Amino acid sequence: MNSSIRLKQTIIVGAILLLVAFLFTRDIKGLVKPTEENGKMPSSGQVSESASAASGLSIQTTSEAAKNVINKSLVTDITTLENSYKGATGAEKVELAQQLAQKWDDVEQLTPSALYLEVVAEAKPSSTSWLASGNKFLKAFESTQDSLAQPALLQKANTSFTKALALDKDNIDAKTGLGVTIVNGLGAPMQGIAMLLEVVAKDPKNIKANMNLGLFSIKSGQFDKA
Fold first, then answer.
1. Rounded Cα gap, residues 128 and 165, in angstroms
2. Half-sphere exposure of 88 (CA within 13 A, CB side)
3. Measured between alpha carbons, how far is 214 from 209 in angstroms, rounded to an integer?
4. Of 72, 60, 35, 65, the residue nearest 144 (C-alpha)
5. Is pLDDT above 70 for 34?
6. What does the pLDDT average to over 90-113?
7. How far apart are CA 223 and CA 1, in angstroms?
8. What CATH number belongs to 2-219?
9. For 165-212, what is each residue's pLDDT tens digit?
10. How far is residue 18's CA from residue 220's CA, in Å, rounded to a whole number?
């Protein structure tokens, strides 16, 4: 039984390595989006500030937008918490940010939730707090249809995972998240694939890493026939 599982894992990893080698010789449509100036993606973590600014990605703007799609009674509760947050300082402000992150998560409004988790991580930096921020930004990126917000969400996820790894270089979840952000456009896809393969080598059952390697395999079939 164990030998059968190992054989399957070996075949999967081998197939992925062959795919990576093949992709080095081909342009990948839809994954590498050239900039107008130089035809290349910015390196990891270098999405332009204008992209973030254009998205209007701030606690105030995302909160106001999210309030339009939730129950009015919940809006009242959240607004009360937000008013307390604005007037608070120190540990109290951090605690209120944590509560607001949870409130927004409870109503499936991921972007304001992620922004409040970022506040918590900045105030109480740890690998765990930055990982929570990164995971929420990545989830928001994956679920939003807002093309203006997507680059900023991906950038913030990338930054959060990078900070988590800086505090704990062995954090597999942070490395997985960082690899996913790179594969999705923040840098060279091969760099992201290499990170995800490192994760799978250490944790063969890592669902997120395996899933994103699989998704990349599917997307990479969209070659430019021109």
1. 10
2. 15
3. 9
4. 65
5. no
6. 97
7. 38
8. 1.25.40.10
9. 999 999 999 999 999 999 988 778 889 899 999 999 999 999 989 998
10. 13
